[in-house]
Amino acid sequence: MTNNAPNSTAPHQMNPTLTTSPPPSDWKERATITVPQAATVLGVSRSSAYEAVHRHSIPTVRIGRRLLVPVGALLDLLNVGGPRG
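The line above is the sequence of Helix-turn-helix domain-containing protein; the predicted structure tokens follow.
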């Protein structure tokens, strides 16, 4: 028997607001966050954040296959809390 029910995970049915990950509440205390979490902090889309990473506008480190954003560098980029040092 064939299931003709619509696929609830089809890309055209996804909620576009769920494309970024909320950063953890203690994100400023962490060493790194993911690119989607950084996108949320910056108020941009996930794809815009990855484009900025590829343009070297957002600093990243690669650990294995993971691409992570150092929180200190992100805060420096945003100049939050004055100069770090």
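Note on the example: The chain has a mean pLDDT of 81. The first helix runs from residue 35 to 42.
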